[in-house]
Write a structure and sequence with these properties.
79% helix, single chain
């Protein structure tokens, strides 16, 4: 009898784990992407934006190929039928968003870029509304506002009156222009072919993206300047290729497919929180009370937004 009573409890625990797993994947994604913004800014003198993005996805393809190609066997008909969707995913998520992000980081600081990146959920909601007719609940809006306030507290170092002096530079506008690209990518991701699993989808989208980036990379090298080969540039490519691309995109694609683009987008507010922690750990920056206030607001907003009932 005790064994029979334990079965429902075990099943309930497994159900909770399955429910939380997509959110855990998105948390891993935000951590990897926080490092991506830092690396993109740090390596700007040695790696032009298109070069960094090209080698990032080329490395990801090389690592993915042995695992993804067997999964794609016999899927040629499906891929051809959904070719326009795959092209859209590659153009927005692999090419446009990443190139604009690295380009913007050349002329704006990482903290500005991270703050502007918090606008991504707004564009995800906007794109979902325009394409699918989705709506957002009042609780989700409240959670987003709370998270955004936490970001402002961190960026303005606890002095909210300083926000009136915030100015948009050219790099800020470029970063902001990348946000609709990400919103479209997340909405298109809901239309992914179910016959192709996450690993296979990531490989195909990466391959299409690299093919699109190749002529752009050649033009950048000839018309502007080539990438500098150094230990720092090699380390940067390894990080953005293995962590910010492979691990992060796989976790993100899985999370969006399970919980939808709106709730996934709200959790992007964790990115500036992780960026602050990375700066403390690796750059030895000081921790102040406003850091804890800001991170607390961000986490509270994410909890409120992701636990809110989905609107009809």
């Amino acid at each position: 009898m005790s064994n029979e009573a334990a079965l429902p409890a075990t099943g309930s625990a497994r159900s909770r784990v399955r429910m939380l797993l997509p959110y855990a994947g998105i948390v891993v994604t935000t951590l990897c992407w926080a490092g991506n913004w830092v690396v993109g800014r740090a390596i700007r003198g040695e790696m032009p934006p298109i070069a960094l993005n090209f080698w990032r996805w080329t490395l990801a393809l090389a690592v993915l190929a042995p695992f993804a190609l067997p999964r794609l066997a016999g899927k040629g008909k499906v891929l051809r039928r959904r070719r326009w969707l795959l092209l859209g995913l590659a153009a927005t998520g692999v090419v446009a968003f990443q190139v604009l992000a690295y380009l913007g980081l050349r002329s704006t600081e990482t903290v500005n870029a991270v703050l502007l990146n918090s606008a991504a959920p707004l564009f995800i909601i906007l794109c979902a509304w325009l394409v699918d007719g989705d709506r957002v609940s009042p609780w989700q809006l409240l959670g987003m506002l709370a998270s955004f306030l936490g970001i402002v507290v961190i960026i303005e170092r606890g002095d909210l009156l300083e926000i009136v002096h915030f100015r948009f530079a050219l790099g800020d506008l470029v970063i902001l222009a990348a946000m609709p690209c990400w919103g479209i990518y997340c909405v298109l991701l809901k239309r992914r072919p179910r016959e192709v699993d996450g690993l296979g989808l990531l490989f195909v989208v990466s391959l299409v993206g690299v093919l699109m980036l190749a002529p752009m990379y050649l033009a950048e090298s000839v018309l502007f300047r080539p990438a500098t080969l150094s230990l720092a540039s090699a380390a940067a490519v390894l990080y953005v290729g293995l962590f910010a691309s492979l691990l992060a995109y796989f976790c993100w694609n899985y999370g969006v497919a399970k919980v939808g683009p709106n709730r996934s987008g709200f959790m992007l507010h964790l990115l500036p929180a992780f960026g602050t922690l990375l700066a403390v750990i690796f750059l030895h920056e000081s921790v102040h009370p406003y850091h804890f206030v800001g991170i607390g607001l961000i986490i509270a907003g994410v909890v409120v937004a992701t636990s809110a009932a989905a609107p009809r």
